[in-house]
Amino acid sequence: MTGPSGTGPVRRGRGRPSRTETAAAPATRDRILEAAREEFSERGYEKTSVRGIAKAAGVDSALVHHYFGTKEQVFESAIEIVFAPALNAPETIAQGPREGVGERLARFFLGVWENPTTRTPLLAILRSAVNNETAAAVFRRLIATQLLRRISGQLDLPDAELRAELAAAQMVGVALLRHVIKVEPIASADLEELVARLAPVVQGHLTRP
Predict the structure, then answer these.
(1) Cα(166)–Cα(205) distance, integer angstroms
(2) Which residues pair with 9 in a beta bridge?
C-alpha cells in the first residue's frame, strides 16, 4: 500500500496492530496474559518487564502496551483471571444457613490454595504483593473491589465491610504462613484440622454481634 501521490508505503503507527493482528486479537491477548502470568510467577513483579512478557508471548512490546498499557495494568489483568476462583466466595457464603458460613468459606478458600493449579500463580501474586508496593496496591484493589465488597454485600449486618476484611485477613494469613513462609506445624497440618480451627474464627468475624 502506498501513500498519497505514490510516495511510498504507508507505515502503521508504532504499537498499532496490523489487520491480521486485529483479526487475531483475542488469541493474541490470551497469549500475552499467559506469558505475563508465567513471567510474574517465575520472576516476581519487580524483575518482570513488558519487554520480557512480549518476548515470551512472541510479540512486539509495543503490542503489549497497546492491549494493556503499563506493566501494572498487565499485572492486574493477569492476576484477575488467576484470582477468579476466589471470586466465587460470595456465592459460597450465600449457599446454606448463616451459622455454617465460616466453615463453608474457610473450606473454599483453603481449598483454592491446596489445588496446585491455582496455588502456583496465587503464590506469585502474594509474593509480589509482599515485596513490591505497586503489586500490593493492585492486589488490595482487586481484593477490595472484586471480593470484599461482594462478601460484605451478602451480610445484612453493621460494619459488614470491616467484618469481611477481618475474615479475609485471617484466611490470607493462614495461606501466607502455610504456603509462603511455611511455618510449622501450620505448613504440614491436615487441611481438615485447619478448617475446623479457622471456621469458628471466620464465623465470628462475619456474623457475631
Answers:
(1) 6
(2) 2
Here the cell at position 12 is 502503521
For residue 92, report the phi and psi dihedrals to the nearest 5 degrees: -65, -40
pLDDT score of 202: 93
Q: Give percent of the chain above pLDDT 70.
A: 87
**Inter-CA distances, 143 with 49, 151, 189, Å:** 24, 10, 26
Cα-atom radius of gyration of the chain, to the nearest Å?
21
Q: Which helix H or strand E contains 196, and what residues bound it?
A: helix 191-207
How far lies 35's CA from each of 39, 58, 60, in Å? Answer: 6, 9, 13
C-alpha atoms less than 13 angstroms from C-alpha of 165 in its C-beta half-sphere: 10
Higher pLDDT, 193 or 121: 193
Q: How far apart are CA 132 and CA 207, in angstroms?
A: 34
For 146-151, the CB contacts below 8 A with 24+ separation are 146/80, 146/83, 146/87, 147/83, 147/86, 147/87, 147/89, 147/90, 150/87, 150/89, 150/90, 151/89, 151/90, 151/93
Total-model pTM: 0.69
Torsion of CA 108, 113, 115, 120, to 10 degrees: 150
pLDDT tier at 181, thresholds 50, 70, 90: confident
Q: How far is Cα of residue 88 from the mean position of the Cα atoms in its chain?
A: 13
Query: Alpha carbon 14 to chain centroid distance?
Result: 30
